[in-house]
Amino acid sequence: MHLAHLSLANVRSFRRLELPLEPGRHVIAGENGEGKSNLLEAVQMLATARTLRSGTDLDLISWAAVEEDPMPAARLEAAVNSAAGRRTLEIAVIAQETPPGVKPTRASRRFRVNGVARRASDLIGQLRVVMFSADDLDIIAGAPALRRRYLDITISQFDPAYLRALQRYQRVLEQRNSLLRKLQERRGKPNELDFWDEELAAAGAVIANRRAEAIRALARDARERYAELATPEGGTEDLAVCYEPRLPGDLPEAVREHDLAERFQAAIVEERREDIRRGVTRWGPHRDDVTFLIGGHHAGNSASRGQQRTAALALRLAEVELSTKRTGDPPVLLLDDILSELDAGRRERILRAAYHVDQVLITTPDPDRPTSDELPEAIRYRLSDGTLTRLDG
20 to 30 Å CA-CA from 280: which of 53, 129, 171, 269? Predict the structure, then answer.
């Protein structure tokens, strides 16, 4: 799989970018603040329909466009070649129309696949990416919500059933919590929860099973990659990745069983009174977590920053392997300014992965790193003032 063309208009620091691409390794050098991360995040959004940064859709639109246009819009387009054929993907982020001099406060998104209007879910997985960035440390040491988000982005790209269940679960959870708050105020009857409990359990069982399956594969490969990447400074202990489903009673041990949905439903019905008292759904995949252990100790609490970085790199490399195995087609790799922070040995191991996929986009503040010896066939660019210039023929 590879990008054949990328087009951006009014996307953060880019007023206009047309970038033809080919398979291989592409190195994009530029000073900090020139928009290197903006470029890779645009590619990531075309793959996942999500932005990496917190904020609103409006934040995607170039402020120059917001200042100039009465109805500013950011547009992201890509042509993708894969084993399944060629397709075009488009995302438009359109701000609300406002009177002259008044800045918009909201924006909406529209999606197209091969020129036809689609939902966001139809876009996800058409382009698959694995993105390495400095923020990956948050997966290891950050809040549980960040690890759930990582799982959702990763699995949704190659598992449509997971994505459908996730979207259904989120809608049902919102409705159930709303009803719980009403019941907390004694406005309604507990049996009104019957339908939502059944739906929550059905979708939640799919999510838990698919997460367990993915984490088993990630854990196995990440353990091997960690051993390869680790240095005496980073530690030589084993890395373990453990799924912690937030299910009542003995249900965490029942993940993967065919009757999980039925048992989950029975358990949340049994826990219903306490949910009503608190006005919130206390059990389910929205409370799941993943634990990373290095040498048997919680990596988020006790590991050094070097160990955490090595664990994050190992996890991303395992993700490349999982995505390739599940689809038969390797994802596009995005390396966002991480190589300059790595020693020569780890840099070599990460770049080795670049030769097992069709396409890699690498950003760096140092035009001489990675060196021509490390990536002798790389196509190199210079990014300055929103303009990308190819440096070789």
Answer: 53
DSSP secondary structure, 323-377, as one string: HHHHHSSPPEEEEES-GGGS-HHHHHHHHHHTTSSSEEEEEES-TTSS-TTTSTT
* Closest to 129 in 3D by CA, of 351, 323, 274: 323
Q: Which CATH class is domain 141-327?
A: mainly alpha
Residues 6+ apart with CB under 8 A from 94: 71, 72, 73, 107, 108, 109, 110
Pair of tokens at residue 273? 């009174």
Neighbours of 92 (CB within 10 A): 16
Return the SS3 of 288: coil
36-83 per-position pLDDT tens digit: 999 999 999 999 998 877 667 888 888 888 878 878 899 999 999 998
Q: Which residues in the chain land under pLDDT 70?
A: 54-55, 100-101, 231-236, 257, 393
